[in-house]
């Protein structure tokens, strides 16, 4: 269920290319119109629950954009709404289907040089589940972060996957509202 293999030489190729598949993924991110919007309660509650399940001080719901990671919700970091994409933990998660876990970032070869590990935050633990759309695009993550190493249970990881699915469901509801509003606007315009 977890990805524990070291980073290969081209693990961050998503940073250098925005090929057709990445363009379609970015279009999927943008169709939900959540980036650059105020925090919505549904996503904030999901981040809170993720943090509670793991007893982690930081939990987020993130969307990976072309050049940044937008935090649709963030528990434990005041005033942070986006972070740079590279070298990206969230962006690494969306490159795969499984839950991504780093038990101790200080010794994990995937994260030894990561700025969140080496910097002030002192990230040591990270677990994330990809948010997948109903048509198969991985948009971002539900993740938890701690500044101390830790182990997790399969039950916790399954719960994280369920929370990511709940975000996906919320996004689909959001899309239905967006499409309904657009259809209503078109009807109004055709009447006049």
From TrEMBL:
Superkingdom assignment: Bacteria
Stored InterPro entries: GAF (IPR003018), GAF-like_dom_sf (IPR029016)
Name of the protein this chain belongs to: GAF domain-containing protein
Transmembrane segments: none
Domain GAF: 38-181
């Amino acid at each position: 269920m977890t990805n524990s293999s070291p980073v290969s030489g081209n693990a961050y190729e998503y940073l250098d290319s925005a090929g057709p598949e990445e363009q379609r993924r970015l279009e999927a991110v943008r169709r939900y119109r959540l980036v650059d919007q105020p925090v919505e309660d549904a996503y904030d509650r999901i981040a809170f629950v993720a943090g509670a399940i793991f007893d982690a001080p930081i939990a987020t719901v993130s969307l990976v954009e072309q050049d940044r990671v937008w935090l649709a919700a963030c528990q434990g970091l005041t005033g942070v709404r986006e972070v740079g994409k590279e070298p990206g933990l969230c962006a690494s998660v969306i490159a795969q289907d499984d839950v991504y876990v780093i038990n101790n970032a200080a010794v994990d070869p995937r994260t030894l040089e990561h700025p969140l590990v080496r910097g002030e935050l002192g990230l040591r633990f990270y677990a994330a589940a990809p948010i997948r759309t109903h048509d198969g695009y991985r948009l971002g993550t539900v993740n938890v972060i701690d500044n101390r190493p830790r182990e997790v249970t399969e039950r916790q990881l399954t719960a994280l996957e369920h929370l990511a699915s709940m975000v996906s469901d919320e996004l689909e509801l959001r899309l239905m509202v967006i499409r309904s509003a657009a259809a209503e606007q078109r009807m109004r315009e055709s009447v006049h």
